[in-house]
Amino acid sequence: MAEPLVLIDTVGAVRKLTLNRATALNSFTAAMHRELRPALDAAAEDAAVRCVVITGAGRGFCAGQDLNDSDVGSDTANLIERVYKPLALRIASMPVPVIAMVNGVAAGAGANFALGCDFVIAARSASFIQAFSKIGLIPDCGGTWLLPRLVGRAKAIGLAMSGDKLSAEDAERMGLIWRCVDDAALADQTMALATKLAAMPVKALAATRRTIDEAIMIGYADALSLEARVQQQMSAQADFREGVAAFLEKRAPKFSDR
């Protein structure tokens, strides 16, 4: 049997998904998408999973769409609507935090797939490339929305138009990613963060992501009202009661909502 294109491992409450086309820098194919989406859905539906880590096998994270794949043709709009839009929205709607552990090059849709995650931790040797302009396209997989919100219009246009390689250190410096770490420390530091997040009130963490994304598109007064509505929902959860009780009793909380 062929080796899976997405490897699935679970350590405690952390689900790790590894894109597994190392010889092709884990570039996306139709077959990989057919394994990745169900793996994300399964993690979302599994009450025991409280954090997801996504990485790539070998020396790359994901080189974007494999242009040799039979799924690529002239109808790119269909490809985006059918594959990349649902993938980006699946990441944005995960009920638990999602960490991209970028172990090497992240290019094109692979870069924006990573940037759509809640945290991006990259090895110092990793790089990010908005490669679309090199083949006459525009950023997809959410890139046009994510880039200006992460780094501002000027840098977003510069990255998208130039298609230049951006080092992990420069990506961290400009606020594109959460953290750049030494290659040897990448796995341990990512797992430490994932374990920390898994022990936190993940329902509130997912609500934090959702509320921040919604607040970006509305005015200040409306954002304050949005905060009030979501805070009301969160204060009715068991995690809020547990958090307050643990604080008053001076003990570590045990959160359970998801």
Distinctive features:
single chain; 258 residues; alpha/beta; 2-enoyl-CoA Hydratase, Chain A, domain 1; Lyase 2-enoyl-coa Hydratase, Chain  A, domain 2; 2 domains; six-stranded mixed beta sheet; four-stranded mixed beta sheet; 10 helices; 10 strands; 46% helix; globular
Describe the 3D structure.
By secondary structure, this protein is an alpha/beta fold. The protein has two domains: 6-198, 2-enoyl-CoA Hydratase, Chain A, domain 1; 202-248, Lyase 2-enoyl-coa Hydratase, Chain  A, domain 2 (Orthogonal Bundle). Helix content is 46%, strand content 17%. It contains ten helices and ten strands. The protein has helices at residues 30-45, 76-92, 109-115, 143-151, 153-162, 168-173, 186-198, 202-215, 220-235, 238-248, and strands spanning 6-11, 14-19, 51-56, 60-62, 98-102, 105-107, 119-123, 127-129, 165-167, 179-181. Strands 1-2-3-5-7-10 form a six-stranded mixed β-sheet, sandwiched between helices. The chain has a four-stranded mixed β-sheet with strand order 4-6-8-9. Helix 4 (143-151) packs across helix 5 (153-162) and helix 8 (202-215) packs antiparallel against helix 9. The longest helix has 17 residues, at 76-92. The chain is globular.
